[in-house]
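User: We ran a pulldown and think these components assemble together. Before we commit to crystallization trials, I'd like a predicted model of the whole complex to look at. Sequences follow.
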Amino acid sequence: MRKLAALVLASLMAISMTACGGSSTTSATTAAETTAAAAATTAAATTAAAAASTTAASSGSAVTIKFRYWADNTDYSALMQNIIKKFNAENGKGITVVGEEQPWDGGAYSQNLFNAVMGGGDIDCSTWKLTSTPLFVNNNLLADLTDYVGKWDKKSDIEDNIYNVMKQAGGSDKLYVMPWNIQVLYVYYRPSIFKAAGVEVPTTYEDFLNCIKKCTMDTNGDGKTDVYGFGMRGAKGGQEPWGSFIYGEGGNFEDLTSDASVKGMQDFIDIYKNGNVPPTATSDGFNEIIANFKSGLTAMTIHHTGSSADMEKTFGDDVSAFAFPKGKGQWTSMGDTETVMFESCKNKDACFEWMSYLAAGEGQKMWCEGTGNVPVSKTVANEDFFQNNRFMKASIAGESYSGILPIRDTTTEWIATVWPNTVSQALTGDIDAKTCMKTLQDELYK
Amino acid sequence: MTKKKKTFWPYLLVAPAVIVIICVVFVPVINAIAMSFQQYDLRRPKDIRWIGIENYIAMFSDRQFLNSCVKTLLWVVFGVGFQFFLGFGLALLLNRKFKGRGIVRAVSMIPWVTPGVLIGLMWRWIYDGNYGVLNDILMKLHIIDKAVPFLSQKTTAFPSVIVTIIWQGIPFFALMILAALQGVSEDLYEAAEMDGATSWQKLTRITIPSIKNTIFVTLLLRVIWVANSVDVIFNMTEGGPAYSTQTLSVYVFNKANALNLGYASAMAIFLAIVLGCAAIPYLRMTFKKEA
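Assistant: Here's a predicted model for the assembly, 737 residues in total across the polymer chains.
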């Protein structure tokens, strides 16, 4: 009897332990999985299933599309949920989109998405950044959209150049990525600080460097800097504004070791060494540069229209923007946000309906008006809302010379680890500009 | 003479736990060992192949790897060392009777129960060079005359994260040592008192020898946990600036995140072997006792 009881107990133990097993291994796979699990806490899942399924039942078979996205703040989160609700209510084709929000988390969104899709996760489409494209294409995870876009009635509403950039990221003539919106980096500045420093909006790269120096001021005479000329972003993500300095001296991303590229890097080092940027620059990320600008610690910083609504709320008319000025060359980062469909999607036609609604339909208008991002749809871009906004104007002014980093399978690691640490070494004097640029070149093109 | 009856029941009852441990611990470890002998990079899945010990050879000529080994040694020595001494002091204090001791015991556990991610984020803002409360306090006390960018410069970033891990780990030592102290008989101290022993002699001749096994086990556990920890450093500095806070675990994490799993696995196996060697004295002691 006791042995039978012991056997039953052992069986129950086995079942319960299998249900809640854990691990203390230090293996790298577990480290990556643990990271993915920790970062994948879902913020919200939109459901209009009850209402939409009634409509679907009357018009045909109901189809559910699982859509993963990130939102930069709670306003954008609510906006996306509204767009989903509107699409679900109005599409008339029985399509119900279920949104699953995940945090961007400095790029961990893309890594978590990869883990989820590779692990057989139930996601049909998601928002996207081009830098992830080689990884997913190499692992055959993305659906080919070439035919879908080819037959799309609004195909010509988006510039051919934008489709070409999408194809370039995929490394072939196939189109894996659907354009959605772009963010062109420009320079925010404070007119009141410019007035106090006695400077005008710079029209050349040399003027811009001069402006940075003049706007670095001790405003209360205590011998300490109270306003820094520029809010440098030295943490990951900083490679985008940094690129403008490289091109300003005539350098480029194809050859980071040229004399011109090295000179651009030296300009970057000099504004740090000369105290024209906050000493925290080596670790300042998005939150820090925005906080520094909003607190009046910096006179200028580089970002895009995504933050413009917040800036206007803080400063009213005492904030404006200009496109990064021309030097020997000119470049500004074209932040991209797109959508992709996964090969595992079972309802590709329905999924493409949703993606096209975001790219050139009402979804495009709602999202771009709500976030201040630059629309890819020419029809939407011509509306008064976009033509009359000073930040949108600065974005549009920079569009002609905006570009992206080389999209390679090394780009993600380069952005996350190599760039921030190597540039920190250069800023703090561990290595010189030439060595820094050689390391960046070698790591990006290995 | 009695014959010892052979029974399979102990093995059967232990079997479920062993099976689960094999599945969730040993299988991934074996998988990691296998990957460490491969060029296993998910960014280039068509190039995955067996390369023997090439990853291990590459490690020892990788400056970042060597630098992170040095950082790990400093991280463990100073992090665990100060945790131990301060935790020991706190345990001795909490072992005395005083008013409010219960509340002090509960409050002193807060750093230990706070999740590592939250600790990293919290301390990141405490150390912030523009808005951090630490700079504010130090300037108001006139200890410094301008804010120190603790996490933005190489000279202060690593000591700053070490202070954070010390703060986190003190309660663990305090708790374990306090429990052991409560098992030390008062009679020993009374006898020593009668013999004229000083406080220092009581500490070194009675207290420490009585709790030495607990000290040994907690030090070993903490060395392993701190050496493996990623969360605090990652949330504070991500291994920067300029790789100054990149311990080996953080380097493994960054490489794994970049999907170069073969190389990351090789470094992880190396770390596991080093920590395994640290556990050998404990294992020898355990087996010796059983024998």
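Chain B touches chain A through 61 residues (CB under 8 Å). That may be worth checking against your pulldown data before setting up trials.

User: Thanks, that helps.
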